[in-house]
Amino acid sequence: MAVKIEVGAGGVPHNQILIYGLVGSLILIYLTYLNSATNTEYFAFFGGLASVAALVWGADTIKHLCSYGLGTGVPSAGMIALGSGVIAALFGAMTGIFAPIVAIIVAAIIGAVSGLLANHVVRMDIPVMIISLTELAVVGAITVLGLIAMVGGTFDFQNLFGGGSVSLGLVIGSGVIALIFMLAAIAIQHAFNACLGPDEKQDRTLMLAAECGFLSMIPIAVISFAFIAFIPALISLVISIVGWLYTYMRYIELSKRDAYAWLDAKPILEPKGGA
After folding, report:
1. Whole-Å CA distances, 231 to 116, 121, 165, 167, 236
2. In whole angstroms, what is the distance from residue 83 CA to residue 126 CA?
3. Are 47 and 155 in contact (CB under 8 A)?
4. pLDDT band at 241 (very low <50, low <70, confident <90, very high)
5. CA end-to-end distance (rounded Å), the chain
6. Which one of 71, 105, 189, 198 has the minimum C-beta count within 10 Å?
7. Domain span at 95
8. What would the pLDDT profile of 145-167 be if each residue is shown by its tens digit?
9. Helix and strand counts by DSSP (H, E) for the chain
10. Is the residue at 275 inside a domain?
């Protein structure tokens, strides 16, 4: 039986973050459907915000899972999450307005099966493995679907097939989906991987997760210029940059708060008078 290691105890309970992350990201991703309702693309940025909300939840889930000593399992958990998420998101995106709900259900099934295999076939025997991989798969699905909506202005591939400004072939065939996979996979695993240790603090870890989410939004916003109108893409880019600057500065403040000492790096100077 794996032994849980207490890291950064206290803070907001994980189940509360789960509820906030799931409900918040669902609401945000559905706000992108305003594009279809108003026949515009101005609401594409909500897809990116949905991804940020999901990534914050995912970072705390990885902390919850890897507190059982899975230090090297952090990248693996992130890749499993996004691998499951891509499959679920693409499956769900073919179901129209129900895409986020279908993607969540499919992702949860894939994640639960992965957790069962990990515990009962690989014999990892980690108490929270099944529920954590289920959560991470759902996080991956919402993140992928949100960033897809940010690129194309909609999460509904049926609309993309129907002669809209973006085609499914461009979204998938251009390799954008691969970039979304890598950006999201790195973002979901980096926060806890960077902050883990005896001095890990939940607020600092989750702020870094949000910063990674907004940072991932920036290249997606740049790419969206090729898929949606100029002004909506510009709005997405501005929101991404502003969100990243704010969360980055807050993360630096929290890092200074928790650090024993803060030393600014200086260039290594050549010693005077030779060696």
Report:
1. 46, 51, 14, 20, 9
2. 21
3. yes
4. very high
5. 56
6. 198
7. 14-257
8. 999 889 888 877 654 444 444 44
9. 11, 0
10. no
